[in-house]
Design brief:
Layout (H helix, E strand, L loop, with lengths): L2 H6 L10 E6 L2 E6 L4 H8 L22 E4 L2 E4 L10 E3 L3 H15 L17 H8 L23 E3 L9 H9 L5 E3 L8 E3 L15 H5 L5 E3 L14 H18 L1 H15 L4 E6 L8 E7 L2 E6 L12 H5 L14 E4 L2 E4 L2 H19 L4 E5 L5 H15 L4 E3 L6 H10 L9 H6 L2 E5 L3 H4 L1 H13 L3 E5 L5 H5 L2 E3 L6 H14 L5 H7 E2 L1 H7 L5 H8 L3 H13 L3 E5 L1 H4 L4 H14 L9 E4 L6 H6 L6 E2 L3 E2 L3 H11 L11 H9 L5 E5 L3 H4 L3 H10 L2 E6 L11 E4 L8 E4 L4 E5 L12 H11 L9 H11 L17 E2 L24 E2 L18 E6 L15 H6 L5 E3 L1 H7 L5 E7 L3 E8 L7 E5 L28 E10 L9 H4 L11 H4 L20
Parallel strand pairs: 1-5, 15-16, 15-25, 17-18, 17-21, 18-19, 20-31, 21-22, 25-26, 26-27, 32-36, 33-35
Antiparallel strand pairs: 1-2, 3-4, 3-5, 6-9, 7-8, 10-11, 11-12, 13-14, 13-27, 23-24, 28-29, 29-30, 32-37, 34-35, 34-37
Helix pairs in contact: 7-8, 10-29, 11-29, 11-30, 12-23, 17-20, 17-21, 17-23, 26-28
């Protein structure tokens, strides 16, 4: 069976519900028709399978260690699917001998020195297979390959001489991550893994996602953070270590591997005493990857993904390698109190006394609504719940918000208007199984990289169609079947035109609409202006392109639409998001698997921060503060009278400071100077505050304006839960003690509350979740027992623990269970280029950095790859103005200016420029204005016009040769391409009969 055939057989849409019977070693087993035989066998018993990792990875067929007899023929168990009546024998002498022969060949590529290997942690499949097969000696002598160990990547190294050529790294790169960097040079005299067809990692297209390291079954690919750290003896100097290896190998011919393996097993057990393995959830984007973190004291050894519902084996560079910020010397470890223009360290008693005295005084003098509370979207649900409870029950105000105001509130608004819940319609799994994915205004491969892998995989292996609407040619745009570039701020027009096209051409799902949707007549009337011709003119997209898009949408069996800040950061953001949901309703793409709306959440807990009530108009679970019945329930539980009027959001708080109405702010984990629009205006507001408390793990730009800075704790130092973009609630566990005098955020908030008269007695975050669940129907059945380990729940969760991975299967979240088509109108962007500011400024993330870089700039390897920010300009603009990469320019908007280097690239076009969000050279927000979406007050960051002035200074190229963007050239393959190995003259199928060579004497 060829790999391409195998890959096609891994379609997530395939039906494997039919059960058939097969015989395994004389025992009848009931298995799923068409599943891989190795999976069926492994449910019954353990057999070696070094190159087979999981159904996600699929069969690779390189190691031959899973050989069994199938209907009397030696067959790879990973390379064949089960069928009814199949006779399988695993324990015959012929099968055992074939597996032993296969493993002996592997040992010719791998030196067994397990006792002094950093990978001897009971998870090395080469080591474990040697034990399972009771290997004592090897027939194929070990032959080192003539290649140096590659240490050129900042995070991991490759040792060709320890590589067994199993191909799992290649399979992961080509068919799971789909970065398509790795291959194996099967035709080389000494085959090895290649990066972009070459022999060095640095300078290739490798994005350091870590998939290859995660699946490597031995020590060929290893995290540099493990080297010399994991083993008791592995940290010795290299010369001494080599001598130890020589000693180990010298005793093998006489004593056999048995004694060596016993020693290595003992040493591996000893490691358990000092290496902790703790389940955690990523603290970067909203995908919600979960994994085990390995720690030795405070040193983070490695991240091991495997069981996460959102990610399985997948990570990105930040999730796999971006954790050292936790131990960075910049960490805040003591409270700080302002004295003049400086800060001094203080103990907790003094700091908390000052905080509570000041807040109490301001509340008494100016009233509760003179204080605002801003909750972090990076802290846990439990942290955020207590902060919003503090605002309402202790201060007595609904002036509470979180950073979803800067990115996701319009998407939530659009879904509330049309379908009733402010969250993804389904799971990441549904996105991967959809027939058509449309991505609008989202740089998915860099902002949500693990989610993007599922789209890339489905597109490459399973025929999924992909349409990308984005002004910039990002990776997903390059892969798309159709990529078009609407004029910024006009997405509402072409999306609405798609809805009209469906009605005009008989493609609208009328039966679905009549049964499940209200507002059809008014909505159809609102579509009158939105012809395809009109959309072509306004959006500046060729008519033929829009017609192709319309046909793709009309004929797709299922469709998911993904969108992010390219939609949500405009003055028409809520209406644009509404238009997305309208189109999904018109085409019947709700109420079933593999379709629906997917607003991609930006931060790790931005969904949870809104779920738990960090909003000015909603209690936890989006329950309105002005509903007397709901308010009464919270008052009874909290034992206080609660305010009834909507509070101020982030945007309004800044305005209220200038108006003299807001006097104090308590802010946690949010660098508002770098995140909010018009940084100069925000900074001015902070300077006017009577009192400002900031709680964070680093001294951010925002901390400079604080009166008191309180040292919080990152996720690795506390227990709690996060809720990811697909509404998935997941537990994280404390892996490290709090650093210095820093404290978990929920503990700090509780102390402040109690000093201001509350009587909170929470001893563990689980108690906070229990209270949240008791008051919040969306979370009714959520508790820590149901989230134990890697178990997850996707809200809404009924009291009995039943969750809803797919929303709306039984109707929409309105009293009549019907969705609502919501008419929208088009308005031009508030700020557009003109003769003075002639360029459109786009902005967003880079893969390796997260937003302003407060965490990622403190990761040494990431700094090596991308040490500085740059302004992307098009090749046309560069030619017109004689600009080359490395030129310094001054970028000026109507609101501010900054100086930055240029990078000439094909990713931007014409008079559009792109500036990453990193803020080492000053936040991008000094350029953006205060105009916002009127429905949500989300700033219109994507409506900024600028001009650039070329400065006389000439710098070096801001891209380093190490960076994957510099010269990387991927080498796409269907996978390992095992047929090329089988064609080698030195390959022989283990267990196959050999011809006996008879020599005659002349």
């Amino acid at each position: 069976m060829t790999l391409s055939t195998t890959a096609a057989g891994m379609n997530p849409l395939s039906d494997r519900s039919k059960m058939v019977s097969i015989s395994i070693d004389g025992h009848t087993a009931s298995v799923s028709d068409g599943e891989l035989l190795v999976e069926a066998i492994l449910r019954e018993k353990e057999i070696p399978h070094i190159c087979y990792h999981s159904p996600l990875m699929g069969p690779i067929q390189t190691c031959d260690t899973c050989l069994v007899e199938v209907d009397g023929k030696i067959t790879r168990a990973c390379g064949i699917k089960v069928s009814s009546g199949m006779e399988v024998v695993t324990d015959s002498k012929r099968a055992r001998d074939a597996r032993a022969e296969a493993f002996d060949v592997i040992l010719g590529n791998h030196m067994l020195y397990c006792t002094v290997c950093d990978n001897n942690n009971e998870n090395c499949r080469v080591h474990n297979t040697a034990l399972a097969l009771n290997v004592q000696h090897q027939s194929h002598p070990f032959k080192p390959k003539p290649y140096e160990v590659d240490m050129s990547n900042p995070f991991y190294r490759y040792d060709p001489s320890q590589c067994i050529l199993c191909g799992q790294c290649v399979q992961a790169c080509q068919t799971v991550e789909v970065n398509e960097t790795l291959s194996i040079g099967w035709e080389l005299e000494h085959p090895r893994v290649l990066w972009d067809g070459g022999m060095q990692i640095a300078g290739s297209s490798c994005v350091s996602c870590g998939h290859c390291v995660t699946v490597c079954p031995c020590n060929a690919l290893m995290e540099k953070s493990m080297l010399g750290e994991a083993g008791y003896l592995s940290g010795m100097p290299k010369d001494a270590l080599n001598k130890m290896i020589e000693v180990v190998k010298a005793v093998e011919p006489e004593m056999g591997y048995g004694m060596i393996m016993q020693v290595s097993q003992t040493e591996a057990k000893m490691r358990e005493e000092r290496i902790e393995r703790t389940k955690t959830v990523c603290t970067y984007c909203g995908v919600g990857c979960s994994y085990d973190v390995w720690t030795k004291e405070r040193k983070i050894l490695k991240i091991v993904p495997l069981h996460g519902d959102a990610n399985q084996i997948s990570t990105c560079v930040k999730g796999k390698f971006g954790w050292d910020y936790v131990n960075h010397p910049d960490r805040l470890q003591k409270p700080l109190i302002r004295e003049g223009s400086n800060f001094r360290e203080a103990d907790w008693k003094e700091a908390l006394n000052l905080v509570t005295t000041k807040l109490s005084s301001i509340k008494q003098q100016y009233g509760p609504d003179s204080i605002g509370v801003i909750v972090s979207s990076k802290t846990t649900n439990e942290d955020g719940y207590l902060m919003q409870k503090f605002a309402r029950a202790v201060i007595g105000t609904n002036n509470v918000d979180n950073c979803s105001r800067y990115c996701q509130s319009p998407a939530t608004m659009g879904l509330f208007r049309t379908v009733g819940y402010g969250g993804d319609s389904g799971s990441i799994k549904d996105i991967g199984s959809s027939a058509l994915v449309v991505i609008v205004g989202a740089n998915t491969a860099e902002s949500h990289p693990v989610l993007a892998t599922r789209v890339k995989r489905a597109h490459k292996l399973h025929g999924q169609r992909l349409i990308v609407a984005d002004p910039r040619t990002n990776e997903m745009a390059e892969r798309a079947d159709i990529h078009f570039r609407p004029r910024p701020g006009t997405d509402l027009v072409w999306i609405s035109a798609m809805s009209r096209y469906m009605f005009d051409n008989g493609h609208a799902k009328i039966d679905f609409i009549e049964e499940w949707v209200n507002g059809l007549d008014e909505f159809r009337k609102s579509l009158e202006p939105f012809t395809i011709d009109y959309a072509s003119r306004i959006c500046e997209v060729p008519l033929e392109t829009l017609q192709r898009v319309a046909q793709e949408i009309a004929t797709a069996e299922s469709m998911c639409i993904l969108w992010a800040m390219g939609i949500t950061q405009h003055t028409t953001a809520s209406d644009e998001s509404t238009a997305v949901s309208n189109l999904l309703l018109v085409t019947g793409n709700y109420m079933r698997p593999g379709c629906g709306a997917y607003p991609l959440r930006g931060h790790n807990n931005v969904q949870g921060a809104s779920d738990i009530g960090a909003m000015p108009d909603n209690y936890p679970g989006y329950q309105h503060v002005n509903d007397p019945g709901i308010r009464e329930r919270f008052e009874k539980s909290w034992g206080v009278k609660l305010p009834s009027l909507r509070g101020l959001d982030n945007h309004q708080m800044v305005d209220a400071v200038y108006d003299g109405k807001l006097r104090a702010i308590y802010l946690a984990g949010e660098d508002m100077i770098s995140a909010d629009s018009n940084a100069n205006v925000v900074a001015g507001a902070f300077e006017k505050l009577d009192f400002f408390v900031v709680q964070d793990i680093f001294f951010t730009e925002t901390c400079r304006y604080a009166d008191v800075v309180l040292p919080g704790a990152p996720a690795l130092e506390k227990d709690g839960t996060f809720t990811n973009t697909e509404r998935r609630i997941q537990r994280l566990y404390k892996a490290l003690p709090e650093l210095g005098d820093s404290r978990a955020d929920w503990k700090i908030t509780q102390d402040i509350a109690n000093r201001m008269g509350a009587n909170w007695r929470y001893e563990h975050p689980s108690e906070v979740m229990d209270e949240l669940a008791s008051l919040t129907p969306l979370y009714a059945g959520v508790n820590y027992e149901r989230l134990e380990g890697y178990k997850t729940l996707q809200w809404p969760v009924a009291a009995d623990g039943t969750d809803q991975p797919i929303l709306y299967l039984n109707g929409f979240a309105f009293p009549d269970k019907k969705a609502r088509l919501y008419p929208v109108t088009f308005n031009e962007p508030t700020e557009r280029p003109d003769k003075d500011f002639d360029l459109f400024l786009n902005n967003g993330r880079l893969l390796e950095h997260f937003h302003e870089g407060n965490m990622t700039y403190r990761i040494q390897g990431i700094r090596e790859e991308t040490p500085e920010r740059f302004l992307e300009i098009s090749e046309e603009l560069a030619k017109e103005r004689s600009i080359e990469s490395g030129h310094w320019v001054r970028v000026t908007s109507r609101h501010g200016s900054l100086v930055i280097k240029t990078l000439v690239t094909h990713r931007v076009h014409g008079k559009q420029v792109y500036l990453p969000l990193l803020s080492r050279e000053g936040p991008i927000n000094v350029l953006t204005g205060s105009h916002a979406d009127p429905a949500t007050n989300t700033p219109a960051y994507k409506e900024t016009a600028v001009n650039i002035k070329v400065l006389p200074e000439r710098g070096t190229n801001p891209l380093k040769r190490l960076n994957f963007r510099y010269s990387g050239k991927p080498t796409p393959q269907t996978g390992v391409e095992i047929e090329r190995k089988w064609k080698r003259k030195d390959y022989r199928m283990p267990g196959a009969e050999q011809l006996v060579q008879i020599q005659t004497q002349k």
